[in-house]
Write a structure and sequence with these properties.
Elements: H1 2-19, H2 32-39, H3 41-78, E1 97-100, E2 106-110, H4 112-115, E3 119-125, E4 131-134, E5 143-146, E6 150-151, E7 160-165, E8 168-173, H5 187-198, E9 207-212, E10 215-220, E11 228-233, H6 235-241, E12 247-249, E13 252-257, E14 267-268, E15 273-278, E16 281-286, E17 291-292, H7 297-314, E18 323-327, E19 330-334, E20 340-345, H8 347-352, E21 366-368, H9 371-375, E22 377-378, H10 379-383, E23 387-392, E24 395-400, H11 405-408, H12 414-429, E25 439-444, E26 449-454, E27 461-466, E28 484-485, H13 494-497, E29 514-518, E30 521-525, H14 531-539, E31 546-551, E32 556-561, E33 572-574, H15 580-585, E34 600-603, E35 608-613, E36 622-626, E37 630-633, E38 636-640, E39 652-653, E40 655-658, H16 660-686, H17 700-704, H18 708-719, H19 727-741, E41 756-758, E42 769-771, H20 773-782, H21 784-792, H22 797-809, H23 817-822, H24 834-886
Antiparallel strand pairs: 1-40, 2-38, 3-35, 3-39, 4-32, 4-34, 5-26, 6-22, 7-8, 7-11, 9-10, 10-13, 11-12, 14-17, 15-16, 15-20, 18-19, 19-21, 23-24, 23-27, 25-26, 27-28, 29-30, 29-33, 31-32, 35-36, 37-38, 41-42
Helix pairs in contact: 1-24, 2-24, 3-16, 3-22, 3-24, 16-19, 16-20, 19-22, 20-21
């Protein structure tokens, strides 16, 4: 018994030793983990200490940032804008009176004392800037997409090729909507790549692709002495161009034979099906995954057979009932389980396997294999089971393409598809008063396109989305982008927008640029510039001085001078042989035009004309002419709204509303917010730690033995006095108090004179202010200018306080004191603050100490493991000795 037990224990220990470097005290009985923990406790204590110092730094940082946030909010509310109603920088902030105006012909604001003496006796003309609204429909108001009942999808879109020039790699990527058709020339791809090269800094003007004698060549045109190289690229793109990876040349890289077939889909699509009937029972044979098939028949048919056999094996109901054979190009199906019928399925399988219809619903069991048909896509199959979301004037409806073979036949050709969609649209949106469908669709056999239009020229239609991929997009079944509308897409560039324009766009010069001259300023645009870029460029130009806008409802552009009144103008001219102006505006008004026409509505340039008296006597009114409808007279801001006519019996006069109470409330709010900041700073500086017990930050080990509430209460005590006596906050508090209470030198006056002063004999207030309501309101009523000047003069309270706030929290042109010390929350700048650097240093030290701790632990565990192994060996020898003795 002793021998067996000892031997078994030795085997167990040996097994443990081979599976782990550490042996717990199974033999020695020692608590190894506790011993190692005790032996390394010194290093762990150092880690804990660094962690506590790091936590204190984080708490200090958080406390500073509370003050920074308060200052930022105070600055944002009272100093950030000259127009905000709460901003002291706003001249209207200190208005103790307002103008009372009941007229619908104009708005007034500003100096109430000046307005009460004004009498407006007439507004005979409003200002108008020169301009016109075109009646030319910019777009063809049609959504069109190339549609076919069967097609071989191009896979070249988004493909890449990486060219190395002068030792640096440049990746060129074809656009995700790039299309390549069977009859397209290979130069369409090289032209697209060259367009990418032209936009790539470092590669432009240094290399280009060209086609010579049917072969693609990459030529070096730059001065670098290094070889040009093709270092990487999409396999299909490279193969189609006849190029290879890791090829180079001193001046040219010449490709081999091109193979445009590589640009097209060569896979049998996963999910393709055949509907099978055996002995009266229905089954579905499904292709389990996308599988690439060679275009060479001998290889293709072999792989297709393997694919079909795998699909049969994957279907437990079919694997012993259905067989397939492909001999040469002949495909045949058979079954040993009963009468076999093929009743339907995906068109790519039926057509690719040559399974022709022999009855109303059945297909032949033998066919001729066609690679092209097998890898092609079919309209009915692609649309089957999808839902298309369309919109008419913002109202969404849904077109569902049902999956059954009978339903699939209703949209399997472009002609049938147009009829199917039209029936759905008419059912969804109805017809107009003339009996026409509000949302119309048709198929144009000449252009091979599916076209969507609205019955009303003011209605906006859209093809919003599809719940199935491969339906929308230039390479999708419908050939239409998701989100396409029957209006001008201003996000498209001039090249892409061509297909949507009512008037074909013609370049202005041989270099392919487009130009337009507006008010003698000529603008030139590239084909890659978007309509939005054109509008923004012109609208932001001071010399052109116009604003161009597009109305999606009317599908028209309008253009108006920004200012100038009767002196404004909008003169538009074409540049060179181009027609950009005609594309945007149709017919533009000739210089000096004065009447609207059937092509445009003209807005005549004119000044605003108003008669006003400044002494309250209408008889003394004078005529004021201005180029804008908004202007200022003697501190009163006018906005003219309408011309006065004979129905106005009396002149327009203004009265004054007293706003003393409102202004008092705004000043009180300012003082209250100031007091809150002072209190925040003073509380942090004066707060002391509890003297009865020390509360250091908790270590991880301590937290493990405490509840969440215990941890929360402990840390609240540990944070107390974290900034006690802090000089930064003390200085900030003193500076803010000085900015508010010191005399404004330019006025030889101070806030206490208008009732705002520190609390007398209240040392606990420590700089907080109180307001004597009666004194302040008296000052607002009798000397409002003095109140305003105390705050807004060049050396006034606002300027002084802004300077102090910026000194502490600015983040540009050198950081403020608080930012330098503690950084700021949610900043995009790199935080180099003192406390952040301290935290980083603590993290580094903790990481180093943890590495040391791991090393020490491993060393001690290794020693204990050797001890256990030694004892285990001794036990084994003892067991053998006992066995020999007993025998």
């Amino acid at each position: 018994m002793i021998s067996t037990a000892s031997s078994s224990l030795a085997s167990s220990l040996n097994a443990t030793a081979t599976s782990s470097k550490r042996l717990s005290g199974l033999v020695s009985g020692l608590d190894t983990d506790t011993l190692v923990k005790q032996l390394t406790s010194g290093t762990q204590s150092k880690i804990d200490k660094q962690g506590q110092l790091k936590q204190i730094a984080l708490w200090r940082q958080q406390s500073y940032r509370e003050v920074t946030k308060a200052l930022q909010e105070f600055q944002s509310k009272y100093f950030s804008s000259a127009t905000s109603s709460s901003s002291i920088l706003n001249a209207a902030f200190f208005n103790s009176t307002s103008i009372k105006n009941t007229s619908s012909f104009l708005n007034v604001s500003g100096s109430a004392s000046a307005a009460k003496n004004m009498v407006v006796t007439g507004i005979t003309q409003l200002a108008q800037q020169a301009g016109f609204a075109s009646k030319h429909k910019v777009s063809d108001q049609t959504i069109s997409g190339a549609v076919s009942d069967v097609w071989r999808p191009s896979t070249v879109a988004g493909s890449t090729i990486t060219v190395n020039y002068d030792g640096k790699d440049y990746q060129l990527a074809l656009d995700s909507d790039f299309t390549f058709a069977k009859d397209d020339d290979i130069s369409k791809v090289t032209d697209a790549l060259n367009a990418k090269i032209a936009k790539t800094d470092g590669l432009a003007d240094n290399v280009n692709f060209k086609v010579e004698d049917g072969k693609v060549i990459l030529a070096k045109t730059g001065s670098s002495s290094a070889d040009i190289k093709i270092t990487d690229g999409s396999d299909g793109l490279l193969k189609g161009l006849g190029l290879s990876k890791d090829t180079s040349g001193s001046t040219v890289i010449e490709g081999g034979d091109t193979n445009t077939d590589s640009f097209f889909k060569s896979t049998l699509t996963a999910g393709s099906t055949l509907d099978i009937e055996i002995d009266g029972n229905a089954y579905t044979l499904t292709i389990p995954s996308d599988t690439s098939i060679s275009s060479e028949d001998s290889l293709g048919t072999l792989s297709v057979k393997a694919i079909l056999e795998e699909a049969i094996r994957s279907n437990p109901d079919l694997k012993d009932k259905l067989s397939v054979d492909i001999t040469g190009n002949t495909v045949s199906f058979s079954s040993s389980a009963g009468a076999l019928k093929i009743t339907g399925g995906s068109q790519n399988l039926l057509q690719g396997l040559g399974l022709t219809k022999i009855e109303d619903k059945n297909f032949a069991l033998t066919g001729t294999y066609s690679y092209e048909n097998l890898v092609s896509s079919y309209l009915g199959d692609s649309l089957s089971g999808s839902t298309l979301t369309v919109s008419l004037d913002g109202v969404d409806k849904y077109i569902t393409f049902k999956e059954s073979d009978n339903q699939k036949g209703l949209y399997s050709t472009p002609e049938k598809l147009a009829e199917y969609i039209q029936n759905s649209l008419t059912a969804s949106y109805g017809k107009d008063a003339d009996g026409n469908s509000k949302f119309q669709v048709s198929y144009d056999d000449t252009t091979k396109s599916l076209n969507f239009k609205a019955a009303s020229s003011t209605s906006i239609i859209a093809i919003e989305s599809s719940d199935v991929s491969g339906i929308l997009g230039k390479t999708g079944a419908l050939g239409i982008y998701a989100g396409e509308t029957n209006r001008l897409n201003t996000n498209k560039d001039l090249e892409d927008v061509q297909e949507n324009l009512a008037t074909p766009l013609v370049a202005s010069s041989a270099d392919g640029t487009y130009g337009i001259t507006i008010n003698d300023k000529t603008f030139t645009f590239k084909s890659t510039d978007t309509i939005n870029t054109i509008l923004k460029t012109i609208n932001n130009d001071a010399q052109a001085n116009v604003t161009i806008t597009y109305s999606s409802v009317n599908d028209t552009f309008s253009i108006t001078a920004k200012n100038g009144g009767s002196g404004s103008r909008v003169d538009i001219e074409e540049v060179g042989d181009g027609n950009l102006a005609a594309v945007l505006f149709g017919t533009v008004p000739p210089k000096g035009a004065s009447e609207s026409t059937e092509d445009y509505t003209l807005q005549k340039a004119q000044d605003a004309v108003m008669t006003v008296s400044f002494d309250g006597n209408p008889a003394n009114a004078i005529t004021i002419t201005r180029s804008e409808n908004k202007f200022t007279l003697d501190g009163v801001d006018f906005e003219l709204l309408a011309e006065m006519d004979s129905t106005v019996e009396k002149p327009i006069t203004f009265s004054v509303n007293n706003q003393t109470d409102d202004l008092y409330d705004k000043i009180k709010s300012f003082v209250d917010d100031y007091n809150a900041i002072i209190k925040l700073c003073n509380d942090k500086v004066s707060e002391r730690k509890d003297t009865d017990e020390t509360y250091d930050p908790l270590t991880d080990a301590q937290k493990a033995d405490m509840s969440e509430d215990e941890i929360k209460n402990w840390e609240a005590k540990a944070k107390k006095g974290i900034l006690n006596g802090d000089s930064i906050l003390s200085n900030l508090s003193v500076d803010l108090r000085s900015s508010m209470t010191d005399q404004v030198a330019s006025m030889k006056a101070a806030l206490y004179e208008i009732g705002i002063a520190t609390k007398a004999n209240d040392y606990s207030a420590n700089g907080q202010l109180t307001i004597d309501e009666e004194t302040l309101k008296n000052a607002l009523n009798n000397n409002p200018d003095k109140v305003a000047s105390l705050f807004t003069s060049e050396d006034g309270i606002a300027a002084r306080m802004q300077s102090i706030i910026n000194k502490n929290i600015k983040t540009t042109g050198g950081d403020g004191i608080l930012i330098t010390k503690a950084g700021v929350d949610n900043s995009t700048k790199v935080d180099n603050s003192t406390l952040t650097q301290a935290v980083t240093d603590y993290n580094t030290k903790i990481k180093e100490l943890k590495t040391l701790l791991e090393t020490q632990q491993e060393q001690y565990y290794a020693k204990f493991t050797r001890l256990e192994q030694y004892l285990s060996n001794m036990n084994s020898q003892a067991a053998l000795f006992l066995t020999d003795t007993s025998s």
